[in-house]
Each structure stands twice: as structure tokens, then as C-alpha cells.
Write the C-alpha cells for this entry.
Amino acid sequence: MTERAQFVTRLGAIAATVGSAVGLGNIWGFPCSAGSNGGGAFLLIYLGCVFLVGIPVILCEFVIGRGTHKNVSGALKQLAPGTKLHWFSYVGICASIMILSFYSVICGWVVEYLIQAISGNLSSQSSDEYEKMFGAFVSNPWRSSLWTLLFLLINFLVLRRGIKKGIEKVANLLMPILFVILIVFCVNALTLDTAKDGLSFLFHPDFSKLTPKVAISAMGQAFFSLSIGLSCILTYASYFRDSDPLFRNATIVALLDTLVALLAGIMIFPVAISFIQGTGDKDSFELVFVTLPNLFNGLPGGGFVWSVLFFLLLFFASLTSTISMSEISISFFQEEHGMSRTKATGVNTIVCMVFGVLCAQSFGVLSDFTIFGKTIFGFFIFLSNDVLLPLGGVFFAWFVGWFIDKKFVDNQLTNFGTSEVSVWRKPLMFCIRYIAPMVIVVIFLYGLGLFDAIL
Ligand code: PFF
């Protein structure tokens, strides 16, 4: 039997996990959610969710993944022998396929806009023209589908090369570039006249804006942004080395992910504060593909440089996220069904290509086809983000907090007694056992619309 792959260095493991977490959810989702939910008040709740729910659930997934060095199904079979709990792995696998399908449609748009930016077409138009260009592009039956397929092909090529030569190498290369681009944008944003207004909106909480709905949106955003609840983090942790400190890695991942969301806020709010405050979540596509390219034209140096940099940033961030989503089913196909890496990656890619094209066509020929009143694209977002992720989060918290052997959890958290989490152990276990599941159940019920009547 061949030896199971591992990330070669601790830095590589962190870069890959941060690469998974940092994506469209941070650079685009966070500013939009914060903007339409009161800015600073949203941020405060978001931070609370990251620390009280995010880090505990990341650690649950780390414990299961690193403790077994197996894919999600194999891990559950090992830790809950003789039970049917391993069936739960299908929740994560289905969620990952759905997320990858709708996510790669947006990534396909990013590829189109990156190419348009490089060819200079984004730096010379009027606002009306940007709007028309985006409308014509997404409703074109084939163009956006083709870019979705192309993006999934790039994703395939990275994944096929495996953990060390594919995922770790790409993450080590792209994550530093991503931070540099973000910082260039932030420095520029801070020099604008509107910087003060943008930053005060983000950093001065107005508590009158704090409603249960804001709190619940912040929780959902934290969940998606940290990639938790669908065993993505679990799968990456199964490639960690036994010497990697789990608590420290989890904290670093959560802090860096939050830092990127904040930097994205600092980069976008001064540029587009009036647009973001005036619109709801549903107009967020317009922010990225219409408003920002238009506003970049007014920045020092002109629209060309800024739009190329911006879409490059989105492209890198999304690629490191999609490779992590795919790894859940690839590791499952390889280890539970004995497929080769190439075949497993191929199966995952083909399935997502089919669903990806269906999602892309939700803006074109399938725009009238609905499931529970939503297009296929909208339905996949709803089912994965509002139902399956929270369900997965509660499951992992329950599994680690209540079901598996405490000694096993302790051994993983302390690397068999060789590293310390002693001060944090009690509060951490309290969050895993009580706080995280309770908070997640609230998100879940909200996602199902059960609070609509009272909020
Ligand atoms: N965390 C990613 C983002 O913020 O865009 C999205 C994501 C990646 C969700 C991986 C789920 C996942 F498994």
C-alpha cells in the first residue's frame, strides 16, 4: 500500500487551509454582508461568531481529520465503528459538490472579467455600458458556461497533481501574492477622500442597527468564510503531520481569514461606500462586476491596473478555495472506492461540470426553471449554505464534544501531551459542547425561515 500524502511543512498546511478559507466569501461576501447589515455592528457579531463558533468547529474537524488521517467517511467509520454515522459523510460530499457548482460559475465570470481587464476593455466604458456588458454576458447561453468549464479544468489540473505538488505548491505561491495585492489596494483606499467615511462605517458600531437578523447573517457569513461544516477542513487536516499544533493552527487560520475580510472591507468601503449602503445582498453581483470596474476608472493610475489586479486577486482567492472543496470527494473516491488520483479528480470534475453548467444557465435558458421558487443556482446556495453547512457544524461539534472518546480528543489537542492547550482546554470544550451547537441551531432555523414571522 502506498503511503498517504501529507503537507510537507507546517507553513504549507497553514497556507492551504487559509487558502481554502479565504475566497469570494471574504473579498466580496464580507463587504456586502457588512454593508447591508450595519457595518460596525455586524463586524462585532461576526468576530464573536468566529471565536465562539468558528474556532471550536475548526478544531472539531481538525481533531477528526488529523486523528485518523482518513477521508471523512473513513474517519467516521474508524471513530464510530459499528454505527451508521459514516453516512453523514454524504452531507459534506453533497454540499461540496453543490458549492463547487455554483461557486465555479462566479469564478468563470471572474475569468471572463480578468481577460476583459487584461485586454483593456474594462477601463474605457461608461457606467451604463458596464451594466449592459454584465447583463449580456451572464444571460448569454454559452459564454458563461464555457468559462465555468474552463475554470473547473484549471481546478482539475491543480488537483490532479496531488497534495504536495498541486495543492501545497499553489497555496504557497498564491497566498503571499494575494496578501500583497490586497495590501496595495488598502494603501490606495486609505489615500482617498472617502477613506474616513468608509472606515468609520466599518469600525464604529452603531448599536441601534443591531437586530437578530444582523446577528444571524454574521453567523452565516462566518461559517461560509471559514469553510466549516462540510468536512473540507477535516479533509485538509487529515494531511497534517502528527507534530502540527492543532489549536495554534486553528487560531492562525481563523485570524488570517478574518484579517483578509477586514482588509477587503478597508479596500472596498472607501471606494464604494454609497453603493454598498444603498443596496441589499442581492445586488452584490453588481458591486463586483459593474460598480467596482466603473469606480476603478477614477482611481490614481487609471482603471486598467486596478481592474487587472482586482480580478487577479479574486481569481487566486477562488482557486485556492475550489481546490479545497473538491478534495473532500476526491479523497473519498480514492480511499473508499479505490480510484486513482486522476480518475477521482476526473469524476469530481465531470459531476461539477454538469451541475456547474446548469447553475450557469440559471441566468440564461434555465432562468424560468425553479425548485421551491429558486433557480438551480439559488437552490444550491440555499441548500448548501442554509441547511447542509449548519447541519454539518452541529454534527461535528456533537461528535467531538459528546460522542468520541475524550482521551482521543485530548491527545489530538495536545499532540499526545507534548504541546499545551491547558488554559484554553476548558473554555474550548465548553464552546464545542454547548455554545457552538446552540448558535448553529439558531442559524439553521433561521435559514429554514422559521424566524421570519418574528424578526
Ligand atoms: N471559504 C470560502 C470563501 O470564503 O469563499 C468558501 C468555501 C471554501 C466554502 C471551501 C466551503 C468550502 F469547503
The radius of gyration is 21 Å.
